[in-house]
Write a structure and sequence with these properties.
Blueprint (H helix, E strand, L loop, with lengths): L11 H13 L10 H6 L2 H4 L3 H7 L1 H4 L22 H4 L14 H12 L1 H21 L1
Length: 136
Amino acid sequence: MSQNKVFFEFNEKLLHDILQSLYSNQYGTFLLDSECEREKNELKTKTVSLWSYVNSNKEKYTNENYMVYDEDLKIETDKLKLWESYYFKEIDPKLLGDETNRQELDGVNILKSNQSSFNNLFASGLQLLNKMLDKS
C-alpha cells in the first residue's frame, strides 16, 4: 500500500485487523479449512463474522484519500519493501536504546538489509508470472 495509496478504498488498518482475526480465532470467518467445512459445522449460527464487524465499522477502515481509478495499477517492483507496520509492530520505539533489546533490533536490521534481495527475488517472480500469463 506504500505505492498507489489513494487508489485503495480501504486503509492499512483493515489489513492488520484481517491478519489479527486470522490468527486469533475471534471470528468464525477463518476457522476450519474451507467454506464447506464452515457450512457443515454451522459456524454462521455459532460465531460472528469478521465481515459483519467490518461492515458495521466502515468509517474505521475507509481510506479518506481514496480516488476511483479504473486502470490497471502500476507496481514498481524495485520499490517494494517489507511491511514494517505489521512485521515490526512489536518493537516499542522507547526501547530502542535499551541494551536488552539490541538482539531483537539486530534481527530487524538484518531483515531490512536483506530487503533488496527480497525485492529482487519478488521482481523475478513477478516477471516469471507475467511470462506465464502472456503464454496463456
